[in-house]
Write a structure and sequence with these properties.
alpha+beta
């Protein structure tokens, strides 16, 4: 689904003001969700759903994504992916490196027919209800302003048949936004920021 947001940017005559506004909006988009915004937590610390949730901001040549997972779901996936004795149940530099490699294989971001690699710029954990969530922030950089994207998202699908990956994309300065729902039989979506 596509939803245009009301309002818009004033014509920027000072780049610093435009970029400041962009980073403020980006911070709002990528901020953690509050407990009330989801019902994925279940009683006694067990969750009933296998879900990842990502917020993606695209502006010019830059893409920033913040993606969040249930800790145990991602731990299971990374343990199988690593095939090593790495302690994947704690956030660490080694785990971050492993996640970045896994992410770039499963979350393929093609901008104007060029595949962009995500670079991890932050990670951490948060508590949602009784669940521990892991979050990661990644940055992608294109050579030219991004007009069209093709996104493939198969995160965790190899381990959970009912895995759902929700991605919210917001484009700047147009402020257009899209919510994409990735499942086993719908792993790819394309967007044209000028037409959609």
């Amino acid at each position: 689904t596509k939803s245009g947001m009301g309002g818009g940017f004033a014509a920027p005559h000072a780049l610093i003001n435009y970029m400041t506004l962009f980073w403020i909006l980006l911070a709002l988009i990528l901020a953690p969700l509050s407990e009330g915004e989801t019902s994925f937590s279940a009683a006694k610390g067990a969750h009933k759903f296998h879900v990842s949730y990502a917020r993606v901001a695209v502006e010019g040549t830059t893409v920033v994504a913040r993606v969040r997972f249930f800790k145990d779901d991602l731990g299971t996936t990374l343990a199988a992916y690593s095939e090593t004795d790495l302690d994947v149940l704690e956030i660490s530099a080694a785990q971050d490196s492993l996640f970045q490699a896994y992410f770039n294989e499963q979350f393929v971001f093609i901008a104007d027919e060029i595949t962009l690699e995500g670079r991890l710029i932050g990670s951490g954990k948060e508590i949602l209800g009784k669940e521990t969530m892991w979050w990661y922030m990644l940055e992608f950089e294109a050579d030219l302003p991004i007009q069209k994207v093709h996104l493939t998202n198969t995160l965790l699908l190899e381990h959970f048949e009912d895995q759902k990956n929700i991605v919210q994309i917001q484009h700047f300065p147009s402020e257009k936004s899209w919510s994409l729902y990735f499942v086993e039989d719908a792993k790819e979506f394309s967007l044209d920021f000028e037409k959609d």
